[in-house]
Write a structure and sequence with these properties.
With 507 residues, the chain is α/β, with parallel strands linked by helices. Helix content is 26%, strand content 13%. The chain has 2 domains: 306 residues, Glycosidases (TIM Barrel, Alpha-Beta Barrel), CATH 3.20.20.80; 111 residues, Methane Monooxygenase Hydroxylase, Chain G, domain 1 (Up-down Bundle). Belongs to the glycosyl hydrolase 72 family.
Length: 507
């Protein structure tokens, strides 16, 4: 594993002067001042004029230095950034933010690369992508936390996706522990009155701190408030384990209603992020800016937001976090109509196992196959769906409700497809004409020296397709090497989208 040394970081001129924070229960503590830290933040994702295919405001040196001055004028202390490019350099921007006392909350997932809410999965590709963001940003002293998922479960029909989001949280927390890095990892969800309390309990519950979210943020919309000219979203975060009345509030209403969002007399608030900083043509925003341009136009909402922030009072009284032993863990609830997965969580995707199993394929997709090409994927998806009507494809499937996860459920799309193609190939006595997908117009690879699939059984956690997942998982966790990925921080990832997955709902 390659990591940046402290000497290397210091050689970049990166300051470590920002105050250290501690997340404990539902409170953030400033360990330098011994006071409670309240997030006074804003979502930061300027899009106007951004390079095609790359949304990364932290790589825009001109824009970032322009906006840091605005952040200082507003009096904010944190920003949330939804999309970044790990191949870009962020040193100048992160240094300027740190020197201004501004923390950064980074989303690990993006709309294109995330746990899908329908037919959900968490595979080695997603884990590697998330690791790359950890590698790129954990070197900075002002990282507030990592968000593993954003509005993935939105209703009762998408609850199962949370089992895979929680698996992603566990995967990244294991990776951070392996690297001896202490940065919180959490989840941000869309509030739905039917599932919100169960969702917050689910991400908070469990006796293993590596399997629970460190913070939880979500939206509560007040549809009874008349919308003003300028729309406002506010995302409030509470810190886990937390439940009961500790809800966050996000308003889509007039600016006046931020007053009750920032009512610090309420014990439920841990601060939050206004959505959003720049006007991206969606009716939100307090400024108008363009990528790479130093000019800025303050919108009418700017002054109102600044005024409200100036009224936020943080007590100077010294506060000290209680020890972890003081808190009891939140118990997971049993499956119920509002939360049918109970405490179920998907097993960790295992790169070593998936790479081993790929050597057992006798018929597999060629290197020229591009799963991010919609046409190629559509053809592959139909082929695999057709084959699985006559084959046992359970090893590539998963069902969080019944706690069933096939051996290859955490492997990549092309690995799952090649597994099914090999099943069909061997079924027809390895006849070359059966290792083909005519519509794909690509020659599939016949591997005459494929290994026996049993050669991969030695790998811990390989046999996960049983109902007693918990017993398997415990053995798996104890021997899990979160650094078994072939991708490191020095390797660029595929910049294409990853929005498709085999349509297992029809298999």
């Amino acid at each position: 594993m390659k990591t940046r040394s402290i000497l290397y970081i210091l050689s970049l001129g990166i300051s470590f002067a920002i105050d250290p924070l501690l997340f404990r229960y539902n409170t953030i503590y400033n360990l330098k001042t011994n006071t409670r830290f309240i997030i006074k933040g804003i979502a930061y994702q300027p899009k106007k004029g951004a390079p095609v295919g790359s949304l990364d405001p932290l790589a825009d040196k001109v824009g970032c230095l322009r906006d840091v001055e605005i952040f200082k004028d507003l009096g904010i202390n944190a920003i949330r950034v939804y999309e970044v490019d790990v191949t870009k350099n962020h040193d100048s921007c992160m240094k300027a933010l740190s020197e201004a006392g501004i923390y950064v909350l980074i989303d690990l997932s993006t709309p294109e690369i995330s746990v899908p809410r329908n037919n959900p999965y968490f595979d080695t590709y997603l884990l590697d992508h998330f690791k790359l963001k950890v590698d790129a940003f954990s070197i900075y002293d002002n990282i507030l936390g990592f968000v593993a998922g954003n509005n993935v479960t939105v209703d009762i029909n998408t609850v199962t996706a949370s089992a895979f989001v929680k698996a992603s949280i566990r995967g990244i927390k294991n990776y951070l522990k392996y690297k001896n890095i202490n940065i919180p990892v959490g989840y941000s969800g869309l509030n739905n009155y039917d599932i919100s309390s169960s969702s917050q309990r689910y991400f908070s519950c469990g006796s293993d701190p590596l399997e629970t979210a460190d913070f939880y943020g979500f939206i509560m919309r007040d549809d009874n408030v008349n919308s003003s000219k300028y729309r406002v979203n506010y995302n409030i975060y509470s810190y886990c384990p937390s439940f009961a009345s500790e809800y966050g509030i996000e308003n889509e209403s007039g600016i006046d209603d931020i007053n009750h969002v920032y009512n610090l007399k309420s014990s439920i608030l841990s601060g939050g992020f206004l959505f959003e900083y720049s006007d991206n043509g969606n009716g939100y925003g307090i400024v108008d800016v363009n990528y790479g341009n130093s000019s800025i136009n303050k919108l009418p909402l700017y002054a109102s937001f600044k005024s409200l922030l100036s009224q936020v009072y943080i007590s100077d009284d010294n506060v000290y976090p209680r020890p972890l032993s003081y808190y009891t863990y939140v118990r997971c609830e049993y499956p119920n109509p509002k939360w049918p997965i109970g405490s179920n969580i998907a097993p960790p995707p295992n790169s070593e196992f998936c790479n081993c199993i790929a050597k057992t394929f006798s018929c597999k997709l060629p290197p020229t196959f591009n799963q991010t090409d919609p046409n190629q994927f559509k053809i592959l998806d139909k082929k695999i769906s057709d084959l699985c009507t006559n084959l046992n494809c359970s090893e590539i499937l998963s069902d969080a409700k019944s706690n069933f996860f096939g051996k290859l459920s955490g492997c990549t799309v092309d690995q799952k497809a090649s597994y099914v193609l090999s099943l069909n190939f061997s079924k027809d006595n390895n006849a070359d004409q059966q290792c083909t997908i005519v519509e794909l117009n690509q020659t599939l690879v016949v591997n005459s020296s494929a290994l026996n699939i049993s050669s991969c059984d030695r790998i811990a956690g390989a046999n996960v397709n049983v109902n007693s997942i918990l017993e398997v998982d415990q053995d798996y966790i104890s021997s899990y090497d979160p650094n078994n990925s072939n991708i490191s921080s020095s390797r660029s990832i595929n910049n294409g989208s990853y929005k498709h997955v085999l349509n297992t709902a029809e298999l």
